[in-house]
Amino acid sequence: MSKPAKTLTACLLILVLALPCAGCWNRREIQDLSFVTAVGVDKGPEEGTLKLTVHLAKPFAIGSAESGGGLEKPFLVATSTGETTFEAVRNFIKSSPRRLNWTHNRFFLFGESFAREGIIDPVNWVGRDGETRRRTLIVVAYNSTAEELLQAEFELEPIPASGAEAILNAAQKGLSTVVVSTVNDFLINLKSDGIEPIGTRAQVFPLVPGKTDWDRTNIEGELKRTEISLSAMIAGSALFKEDKLVGFMDERETRGYNWIMGQVRSTIVSFNYPHRGNKKMGLEVIRMKSSIIPQIDAEKVQFKVKIDVQANIGETSWPAGSHGGADMIKMVEEKANAVIKGEAENALVKAQELNVDVFGFGREIYRSNPQKWAGIKEQWEHLFPLLNVQIEVNTRIQNTGMVRF
């Protein structure tokens, strides 16, 4: 075969092979999709069923809501039930003219009563489904259902999931009073020895006086919004024993957890200063680190937690220029040490009362001494509530600040 004939044959072959590759055989046009931004899971109306509540974004209404050109609600609240999560997801076909798309889902919310019976089935569905994301955040509705929590809105954000995510990120970075836990974190801790899963706590509260009745604040089916009746507070943490919710930590206890885990990015530590007539002082934590050190011998296991904090003086309620001496700074540091240590100890007490090792002390034993862990692994549930943990805090004031006149 001549060279021109070979070239022609090769070009024809490439053309023939390229034809089946044109286009996407399983394409989904964006106008045929409905994007989920948050999903809640509760017990279903019948025994053995569950109820899903979702926020579906309405792109054609978002622009007008952001510009103030319209009152149409930029999201839709829809519900579905099923015997399994997968079935409930598929049953949305009955109420949504568009196929649900889960790639933009940010929150997996669980009602408290549902979470206390175990959340492994919905979380397992997220882990298996190819469209969902493992970075979706795990949140538990404190003293309410997930459906109630999904009635909450935020005045400065048209999409509630965006507002909740912004609050959560700000609380993590500026207050350290929340725990941010994804589906991936939950599954890893669930399958790991010596550590239990933890999630975020959220609580719904009314904005309009007198509107506390759930039946009067259900926004499902509303086309327009004239007022926001409910909002949400995202603070604290939810503690799990395996996949079952066993209790909550409040904001200070959660910050204590973050002190131990080295997850305080920035926060304000306030306290009375007795040497100045109980005047107030506020320190801004600018960086910190912690170390969890197992101390293991043949007879017992105990731990030391070392917390190193660097802070600036952000506010005092006594005259400027009167707190710069070395003795004064040392006393401030000691006062801060006591406050931080107290919060860390309170978090430890709460975890030991609930018997959930969310700190991963058992995992640290396994890492440092696998043979010891193998010998006490089966008894860890009985040993953890009695575990002796010594907390040592070392605060250093980096900057006393300067008042401008």
Overview of this protein structure:
This protein is α/β, with parallel strands linked by helices and 405 residues long. The chain has two domains: 31-249, no CATH class; 259-399, GMP Synthetase, Chain A, domain 3 (2-Layer Sandwich), CATH 3.30.300.210. Helix content is 33%, strand content 30%. It is built from 13 helices and 13 strands. The chain has helices at residues 3-18, 59-67, 85-90, 112-116, 120-128, 146-149, 160-174, 183-191, 251-261, 326-354, 361-368, 370-376, 380-383; strands at 33-43, 50-57, 75-82, 99-101, 107-111, 137-141, 198-206, 230-241, 244-249, 267-273, 279-296, 301-316, 388-399. Strands 1, 2, 3, 4, 5, 6, 7, 8 and 9 form a nine-stranded mixed beta sheet that branches. The protein has a four-stranded mixed beta sheet with strand order 10-11-12-13. Helix 9 packs across helix 10. The protein is globular, with a radius of gyration of 27 Å. The mean pLDDT is 86.
- Largest β sheet strand count, sense and barrel closure: 9 strands, mixed
Q: Which descriptor suits the 3D outline?
A: globular
The assigned structural class equals alpha/beta
Q: Got a strand count?
A: 13
Q: Detail the poorly predicted runs.
A: none
What is the string of SSEs from the N terminus onward?
A: HEEHEHEEHHEHHHEEEHEEEHHHHE
Rounded to the nearest angstrom, the radius of gyration is: 27 Å
N-end to C-end Cα span: 93 Å
State which percent range the strand residues make up: 25-35%
Task: Give the number of domains.
Answer: 2
Helix content: 25-40%
Summed up, the helix count is 13
Give the overall pLDDT as a whole number: 86
